[in-house]
Amino acid sequence: MPQLLDMPPTDPRVISLMNAQQRELRELYQDTDERTEPFDPAILSGEGCVLLAVQEGAELLACGAIKRLDQTSAEVKRMYTVPAARGRGLGRQILNELIERGRAQGYERLVLETGDLQAEAVALYERSGFTRIPNFGYYVGIENSQCYELPLKPA
């Protein structure tokens, strides 16, 4: 059973997984204009967290993070599972832990963005209670972006 580790966003293993996610998204969306949000590990520092799913033997399997947006909100970021590890529930495991972390940190809601071609991600978020909202922040005006929100009840 993989274990979830808290990792600093600048750890080379975290950056490796997040870069793999970005390459996959650019390929999926044929994004030659680099329209995906630029990735800077520093945005995940501070009052958020980065989780990494690691198999025995240090095999990297999945990651996810939350970053603080304001006093009451955090954004789920960089959810990714390597292709060979998909279908094992790792995304759900990481998302559930991020929700609990957000609740424990006192956030009133989590928001996230995914793309319209990522049916598995959309299904995961909707099964986890996230509901569609208008695009926010960086994603305003990006047609293939879909934004979601999950109100958090206090722990």
Automatic annotation (TrEMBL):
Keywords: Acyltransferase, Transferase. SUPFAM superfamilies: Acyl-CoA N-acyltransferases (Nat). The keyword Acyltransferase applies. It comes from the Bacteria. This is N-acetyltransferase. GO terms for molecular function: acyltransferase activity, transferring groups other than amino-acyl groups. It comes from Deinococcus koreensis. Residues 13-153 form the N-acetyltransferase domain.
